[in-house]
Amino acid sequence: MSRIAVLALLISACSLDLAPVETRGLPCEKPLDCAADLLCHKGVCLKRFITCSINGQLEQGESCDDGNSDDQDGCRSDCQLARCGDGVLRKDLSEGAAGFEACDDANENNDDGCTNNCLVARCGDSFTGPNEDCDDGNSVQTDGCTNTCQLARCGDGYQRTGLAADDPAYEGCDDSNAVETDACTSQCVLARCGDSITRQDLIFGQEGFEACDDGNVEQDDFCLANCILATCGDGLLWVGREFCDDGNEGQTDSCLSDCSLARCGDGHQRTDLALDDVKYEQCDDGNDADLDDCRNDCSEPSWLRCGDRLRFVEQVLSSSGGGEGMGAFTLDLDGDDDLDVGYVNQQASAYTYLYNGNRSFEPGALI
């Protein structure tokens, strides 16, 4: 080919707006796939041959010509229209106007500091940007992403809703503290009697008050199923601590008010038994004296029966008289309704004699 033909071909090519960068141009699908000084044309990045005289007159090869070299208005200094993504920040528009740019990083990454619509990334723009765990684009505080674009978590102060109770992320409450003993535990579970955590934010009488919480429903230990401390008189037997608990303050049945079992000699006469019951008590004076009006087996002496002539008995132990124990009493010995003085001498054999006034002992009825 002659030099003239080659020159003619080059001149012809210069009349075009576009020419390949190289015989094997880089493939592209959209303008941003090419460098800033290239255009995507029919799937190939091509060099832009621009005639831009910046004279305010739109000429061939110019998209615009505003007569100035300001790159940050609507017409760039290369006579091409400004666009979001061209890498040049446009500054001639106010926020809200069509074409306004707050940033332009010339990429299509929505997760960096500048979104693809040339706005500065912010929490709530639906794009997860720097320093954001999430961004769901709403103002709901009770879903998986809070208004601060942080993932919802137990302890953030917002009770998450919309989850099933068996979901690991379910929250029954969220008071944003780590205190275990208030209405909401540190695991975001509502406090309840039986959770093994004794609630301490209430006083006695308030609903939900707990004096204890042992995490079980047993009624025979120190903490009852309603989280109240076991006490004598609550009607529930505290195993290992109480012998009985009938829930009353009566002192004449099988269980005394101190939750001990009634017994002969405790000073409380049982009245809940039939006469033929082996534990029946005619009396119980709570002492060890066997010569008064109540014997140590809680029976009355035979001479204290209704119809005898006893008026008063006074036990006076004495070392005189030769006996191991002397009991003085007054009774009507001769039936004349006058009180006579008599004595009882208790020997080691437990026989009892009446003293006849002449300081000699005469056999008398066994007590």
3D shape: rod-shaped
Rg computed from alpha carbons, rounded to a whole number of angstroms:
54 Å
| Strand order in space, largest sheet | 4-5-6-7-8
Structural class: little secondary structure
Helix content: under 10%
Total E-strand runs:
8
Series of secondary-structure elements, N-terminal to C-terminal: HEEEEEEEE
β-strand percent reads 5-15%
Largest sheet: 5 strands, antiparallel
Count of DSSP H/I helices: 1
Determine the oligomeric state from the structure: single chain
Low-confidence stretches: 1-23, 305-330, 343-367
User: Whole-Å distance between the termini?
Assistant: 159 Å
Commentary on this structure:
The chain has 367 residues and is low in regular secondary structure. The protein contains one helix and eight strands. The strands form two sheets. Strands 4-5-6-7-8 form a five-stranded antiparallel β-sheet, with no helix packed on it. Strands 1-3-2 form a three-stranded antiparallel β-sheet, with no helix packed on it. Mean pLDDT is 80; it is low at 1-23, 305-330 and 343-367.
What are the defining features of this structure?
367 residues; three-stranded antiparallel sheet; 8 strands; five-stranded antiparallel sheet; disordered C terminus; 10% strand; single chain; little secondary structure; disordered N terminus
List the SSEs and their pairings.
Blueprint: H1 3-14, E1 18-20, E2 38-41, E3 44-48, E4 310-314, E5 326-331, E6 340-346, E7 352-355, E8 361-363
